[in-house]
Amino acid sequence: MYKTPCGRFTGALGLGLKQKNLTRAATGHLVRLCRDGPAQKITFQRLKILKRQYVASSGQFWQRAKPQHEPPSVLEDRDDAIIQQVQQIPATKPPVLEKEPEAVRAARIEARQWKELKVEFSELPGIYARLSKIKLTALVVTTAAAGYAMAPVPFDPMCFLLASLGTGLSSCMANSINQYFEVPFDSNMNRTKNRPLVRGQISPLHAVSFALACGVPGVSLLTLAVNPLTGLLGALNIVLYTCCYTPLKRLSITNTWVGAVVGAIPPVMGWTAATGSLDPGALLLGGFLYCWQFPHFNALSWNLREDYSRGGYRMMSVTHPALCRTVALRHSLGLVGLSAVAPAVGVTTWTFPLISLPINLYITHLSFRFYRHGDRTNARKLFFCSLWHLPMLLLLALTCKKIKVEPDGGVASITPPVAMRD
């Protein structure tokens, strides 16, 4: 602070006034400022300026020293240098886009517009076959037929055909509804991106109508023409597949166990269609299908992990790879155990465990290799083995089927329900 007397206060009051006189002089100064006119009226900002410019020291007002400018820091110099470099960068002109031809632009706009789907009648059989997953439906009907053939009753061709038809129609409905719900997810998978609903070959309403046209007659046929128990199992299978298994695929790995239950019901339906009752033999056949599905599906999903991950499906092979291999091995051993139980419940003779042991040991051996190594090669071998293992196992069980003999020498039979005869 440098001591320079304030000329304005010195001329009005003079040097050497007391502190009490300084206060009165300052008041007079403010009154004079107010009398000078509107342009010189005192304001809050002006008072702040006065407070900043003058300080009282030893009974006198002294002008405040001007703050010295500190030298800019190294960081500020660096920032200024960076700013200057940025300002020196020449502005680039945006690239000139070539004008799109009018025909190409019109075609692009046309492709984005909503269009009415036109389906040729000649294409409908193929579309319906893919919508209903015809290969999977054929496997379902085959296992149901095996369950009917294993039942200890005389073979009724008409009942067999009605049960097979009703089971096939129910499977078509379940598969169609499954695809209807999974269109957004199927479009992300290479395995399912060519399905009819994903490609827009038919409308969702068309697919649902086809599903109802299959499911309602199918369940009605099983209930009225076969027996109510088989119809109930068919309806239960549709509900489990569409309402439980399908949404669980994106929520939890328990979907695999629910799907195994769905696959185990068709042979039980075949048994109940023949006998009208739920016997231990029906549960045994369902157990065969239940255990077989784990080495079959776990090996299949192992080589499709990337696809399932893109689709957002929570499969064991994606989220729990070690558990996936363990479960496949565990249920392969379960096939050996169930084959040994079959004679005890009166379904097959005691030769069945012996002649089925080689194929059961072979699939168990492949499951063990898949468990130890967990590579694509062993997974592929296990999957292809499961494709022929199930038909072979059911065929061996059918050749070793145990036939009950009445005391009078006749073959035991169970009278079919009255509804089936109608």
Number of domains: 2
Distance between the termini: 120 Å
What structural class do helix, strand and pairing data support? mainly alpha
Oligomeric state of the chains present here: single chain
Using only CA atoms, what is the Rg?
Answer: 44 Å
User: Element order, helices and strands?
Assistant: HHHEEHHHHHHHHHHHHHHHHH
Mean pLDDT: 78
Please state roughly what percent of the residues sit in beta strands, choosing from under 5%, 5-15%, 15-25%, 25-35%, 35-45% or over 45%.
Answer: under 5%
| Count of individual helical segments | 20
Record field, number of beta strands: 2
How would you concisely characterize the structure shown here?
With 422 residues, the protein is mostly helical.
Keywords, please?
single chain; 422 residues; mainly alpha; Tetracycline Repressor, domain 2; two-stranded antiparallel ribbon; 20 helices; globular; disordered C terminus; mitochondrion; Protoheme IX farnesyltransferase, mitochondrial; UbiA_prenylTrfase_CS
Describe this structure in words.
- With about 425 residues, this protein is an all-alpha fold.
- About 70% of the residues lie in helices and about 0% in strands.
- A hairpin with a 2-residue loop joins strand 1 and strand 2.
- The chain starts with 6 loop residues before the first helix and ends with a helix.
